[in-house]
Amino acid sequence: MNGLIGQMKAKRGIAAALINPYLDRVCIVGVGGTGKTTLLEAVFPYFPKKDIVIVPAHVATEKLLGEKEIALFSQNRKNPGSHSLLYQAKVVITDQFALMSESNQRLLVQLLKNKEIQLYQDADFYSYPLMAKWFYCLDQEMQDKSMLKHAKLCARLVPVFNVSERRDILLTPDDQEHEYRKEEIEQAKQRLPSVQVSKDTLRLAVEVVLRSGCKNQEADVDLIETARALAALDSDESVQPKHIEEAAGYAVSHRMGEQQESSLSKESESPANEETSKNNLEDKRLSSSDKETVLADKGRQNHETPGEPLPDEEPPNSETIAEDLEDEVEQIITSLKVQSELLYSKRNINPHTIKGKHQEGTSASGNGRAIRAVGRPTEAISLYHTLTAAAPFMKVRVPREGMALVIEKEDIRYKLKEKQQGFTILFLVDASRSIAAKRQMSVVKGAIMELLRQAYQKRDRIGLVSFRKTGADVVLPFTNKFAEAKRKLGEIPTGGKTPLAAGLEKALILCEKERRIHKQAAPYIVILTDGNANETLKPGGTAAQARSEAYQIARRLAREQLPVTVIDTQSERNTFGLAEELTAALDGEYISLDVLTDKNIAKTVQSRLHP
Amino acid sequence: MRNYPFTAIVGQEKMKKALIINGINPKIGGVLIQGEKGTAKSTAVRALADVLPDTFVVNLPVSATEDRVVGTLDMEHILKTGEKKLEAGILAKADENILYVDEVNLLEDHLVDILLDTAAMGVNRIEREGVSYEHPSRFVLVGTMNPEEGTLRPQLLDRFGLCVDIESEKNIEDRMEVVRRRLDFERDQGQFEKRYEQDQMELKQQIQRAQVFFPSVEINDDLIGAVADLSIKLGIESHRADITVITAAQTLAAWKQRTMVQLEDIYEAAELALPHRLLQDPMKGNPLHQELARLLNNRVVDN
C-alpha cells in the first residue's frame, strides 16, 4: 500500500512536469534499485523520439558546448558543423548525473538555465535557444545532496517493489488506474492556461516557502506552477490548498535540506544520524522565526524605491493573515519536514544491499583536465593541436605512400593537464608535557593559523596530528577552510608522555591515504618536536624501546619518500641533538629556529613550499 | 527566447543600480553579485542588455577551454589552404559587451588568470603556434556567485569594480508580486513585454541621456579628499578603490542628470565599491564592514 502511494506520488510528480512547460528541471530520486531509470524511460513515450537527447555521464565538455567540426570535403557548408549535443533538444536525459564530472555538471546546468547556447562560427557569433526539459536521476544514498537543488521539481521513489513488478506497472499501457495516458496529459496541458491562482492560495504558497526555511526564492514560482499543473490534472479550475500541499512535496522539500546539509558538512565526515538531523530541524525552526523578525524592517526599506512600480497592495501585515491560513501553513510545513528528512537523512546502509547500476566513485587515474597544448612531452598527445601545428607545412611536405598527411616529430603537441594546485601540509605536533610546559602549543597553533591564512591564496591544504599520553589524534583532517580549522584548533589537550612512534605512524597512514586520493599531491610533513620519545606504540614500554620504535617508523617514512621538515622545539643552546638524530632517520630537513614564533614557523614552511 | 524585462524585476534596487551604472559607464569595472540561489541575479544580468544600446551578454562558461576563450587557429582553414587563420574566441566577442560569468567562484584557475590579464589591459593577446595577434577586449565584467559554494580569489575580487550582496525577498507581499509577474510572463511573454514597454523605453532613454551627460560631470577636490579620507580610515590599500568610487559617483551624478558630483553620490558609490575591498580577517569576523556602515551612516546624517 505504502509503495503504491509512493509510486503514484512519483508518477503524479512526473505528470505535473509533463503538463507544465515551466517545470523544466526534474529530478528523480530513489534508493538504488527502485527503478529510477525505469521511471525515466516511462517519460520517453510522451515525446517524439527525435526530441530526446540522452547525455551520457562521460560526455566531453566539447560535446556539450558544441565544437567546430572539420569539414574538409564539403565545399558549401550550409548548416553550422559545430552543434552541441543539446542542439534542438526538447528533452534532455541524464540517467547518471552524479557520475558526470563536476565541471560538466555545472556546465550542463548553466546551459539549461541560460536556455541558450552561444558559439562562434567563421568569426560569426551566434546563439541558439535551448528550450529543453531536463530529467535527471539521483541516488538517494549519494554523498552530495546539493545536486538535488538544480531541480524545480523532485519526484521520489519509495523502495518497496522489486524492479520487475515495478516495470510491469509502469509499462502496461492499459493499466489505467496507474498510468497517465498521453491524451490525459495532453488534455491537462490544454486546461493549464486557464487554471487560476487566487490571492489567498498565492499567499499560502509564499508563506509555505518562507517558513520551510528554503532560501531559494525561485521555489515560490516552482511551487505555484507545480500546483497549477496538478490542478489541471485534476480538472480543477483553480488551484486548491490541497494542491499547494501536494506540490510542496515536489517543489520545496528537496530544497529544505540546503542549510541542513551545509551545517552537516561542516561538522565532520561522520554520517548524519537521526539525532543530528533532528537537531537541525530545530535549528531551522529557530532560524525561520529569526527571519520573520527581519521581515518587518525589510518591508519598510522597500518603499523608497524610485523607478520601480510597487505592488499596489495594502502594506504587509502579518496579523491580517487568517487563522486558518496559519493552520494550513503549519500543517504543510510539518508534512514537508517529514519528507525533507526522508530525502536528506542517511539511513544505516549495509554496503552489501546497495543495488543499481553505478555508484559514486572517484575517477580512475588522477588525470586532470586538458587546459592547453604544449610542445614538451606530457602524458597524452593532443591530436587536434598536432594537426594544427603540422597543417601549414602540408603544401611543402611530401606524404609517404598511402598517407594523406605528413606529421613530423616537431609538430607533435601534448596536452598539458591541470593538476591539483597547492600543497598538502601535515603538521605533526608534540603535545606532551615538555611542550606544554613551555607554552609552545600556542606558538604552533599560531603558525598553523598563519599558514591557513596564506593557504587561502596559495591553495594549500593543511592537516594537524598531535601526539601525547598514549597515542596520536587527528586534530584537523586536511582542509583549507579557515573557520573549521580555527574551531578545531581551539582546544588541543596537552600534557602526558611522548608517544613519538604513534605520532609518526599516524602521519604515515594519513599521508599514504592522501597520496592515494590525490595522485599528484605528495603531502609535506612538518614535525615539531624536541626529538624525545618515552612512550611505546603499545603503552608501557621503556624510553629506549619508545625511541627505537620511533626511529623504525621514521625510516619507513623515509622509504615512502615523504618530504619531511623537522622543526626543533629546543632552542640552539640547550639542544640534545635528539631532533637531529630523528631527522637523519627520516631523511628530512632539520631546522632550528633561534626564536620560535608563529610567524617564524609559517615563514620557514612557506619558503620551503613556495620559493 | 525573450528576456524578462529589467523594469519588471521586483526590488533588489542595489543590484539594479550597480548594473545600470556599469551599463552607462563600462569604466567602472564591472560588478560582482553575491547572493543565494533564486534571487534574480542571472535574470537581471540578461535583462540589462535589453536596456543598453547594441549590447550583448556573452556567457563565459566556467569550464570552457582556453582555446575557446582566447581564440585559436582555425584548423579547418589551415588544413584546406595551408594558411594560418585565426579563430576568435569569447574574449573577442565580449569586446564592448557584457562578459557574464555565472558562478564565477567556480571558474577554473587557468581561466581566472586569462580573465585577470585581459581585464587589466583591455587587450587580449593570442600567442599560438607562431601566430601573434592582439585585439581589444574591453568588457563589462559581471559575475554572479553563491558565497556558500566557495570563495573568490582575492585578485579576481579586486578586479570587480562594484560588489553587491543580495538576499531573497522576505516580504510576503513583494514575493507574491514576484510570483504574479513571473506567472504573467510565462503565460504571455508578448503581452507582458507590452506592459513594461513604456518603462523599458524610459529606462533606456535615461541611460542614454546619462551617457551623454557623463563627460561633463565634474567633481571638486573636497570630494576627492573625502574619498581618500574614507579609504584611509578603512585601511584600504588599493588606489583602484578610490578611482572606482569617484568614477561610480560621477556616473551616479550623470544618472541623476547633475553636472556636479555631490557627497551623497560619493557615499552611494562607496557603498557599492568598497565592501569587497575591505581587508578581511577571517579571525575576527567583519569589524571593518561595520566600520564602513558606521562611517557612511554618520556622513549621511552630518550632511
List keywords for this structure.
heterodimer; A: 611 residues; Rossmann fold; Helicase, Ruva Protein, domain 3; 4 domains; six-stranded mixed β-sheet; 15 strands; flat; B: 303 residues; alpha/beta; two-stranded antiparallel sheet; 14% strand; globular
Shape of chain A: flat
Give the uncertain stretches of chain B in residue-range form.
none
Give the class of chain A from helix and strand content and strand pairing: alpha/beta
Biggest β-sheet description of chain A: 6 strands, mixed
Overall mean pLDDT of chain A stands at 73
Please write the CATH class name of the largest domain in chain B. Answer: Alpha Beta
Instruction: Return the average pLDDT of chain B rounded to an integer.
Output: 84
Q: What is the CATH architecture term of the largest domain in chain B?
A: 3-Layer(aba) Sandwich
The general outline of chain B is: globular
**Cα-to-Cα separation, first versus last residue of chain B:** 47 Å
CATH class of the largest domain in chain A: Alpha Beta
Q: What's the alpha carbon Rg of chain B, rounded to whole Å?
A: 21 Å
Work out the count of structural domains of chain A.
Answer: 4
CATH fold category name of the largest domain in chain A: Rossmann fold
CATH topology of the largest domain in chain B: Rossmann fold
- Beginning-to-end CA distance, first to last residue of chain A: 67 Å
What is the beta-strand fraction of chain A? 5-15%
